[in-house]
User: What shape does this take?
Amino acid sequence: METNQMEPNFKAALSVEPIDGKYSCSLEVFLGDVKVWNSGHYSPFFTSERCVLELTKQGDLQLKGEKERVGWRTGTSGQGVEILKILGTGNLVLVDALNLTKWQSFNFPTDVMLRGQRLNVATRLTSFPTNSTAFYSLEIQYNKIALYLNSGRWNYSYWEFKPSKNRNITFAELGSKGLALFNDNHHKMAKISLSKRIHHPLGFLALGNKTGNLGLYFYSPDKQSDGFSGAFCGRGEVEMRELYGVSSVLRAAPTKLNISKVACAKFCLQNCKCVAALYSSEELRECHLYGVVMGVKQVERGTRWTYMVKVQKGSYVGHDNSGLKKWVLAMVGLIDSLVILLVFGGFAYYLIRKRRNNTATTADNTT
Assistant: This one.
């Protein structure tokens, strides 16, 4: 099942993936080769012999395993459902004879939010790190929007925004230019937007399962490169780019003292494990090297701290020989005092690498 639109298309597919000697059976939605919805996001359905998708005579969409065991269902039995279809927005819907929607995947968000999709106090994005009982969540609450790290009964907020003048948030909706927040009267209060230099419509918003970072992604048909070549080190392949107005809350013992900013950047360039550097122009002239980009925060310009990240040469916006792929992580803007600094692995413009092996595996296991 696939939408009829310009590349990339939305596709719905029945997927079977081997996991620890068993098979995960799920209904999935893809935007190009990016998975944007999965029926087994919260509770995977494992089967050993068969995986069948069935729309019953009663109108219930079900995933079945051996011996007719039902592992997932929409719960729409008796509602007159006749057709399953995927819309141009990527919304998977069940409709009746009058084309009235009885069930839609937009009401069951996973870790990705698509254009036209809404989040309210009853829904949230969730992302589950591998081999961990903790998980990340983006939640819409009446008085704030927040990112959480959830572990057992503990919830740790690592970013939040509270509207001024005690305004309540009713819902958030993703549009072609960013994520908009609305109040009780459906008036827009704030917006997380794409950079003004980005002329392509927003594709989706995603909550990463490794760091819990939130990213806005768009599709650029002009970027045809298959990705970066060479290792992420060596002065001929990479360069250091300064992120203005940001610093890091991570503080380790300085790697070098009494050196210049240029020398600090050079040390990171020559170290293949270094992905970022923090330099202080104060008396000790400290240089901190980092193997991961985390704990980045916004600071006032004019401070004596300089934060630099390592990027592939030509990967920043504005360079004619850009090495970016089609999917690009877009830097967010600042509107109505809403600040979210999103940094995935370093610089504000990044790409989604196609995992060639994983893509091949998915293709083999998707029916």
Observations:
- The two ends are 11 Å apart (CA to CA).
- The chain has two helices and 29 strands.
- The longest strand covers residues 10-19.
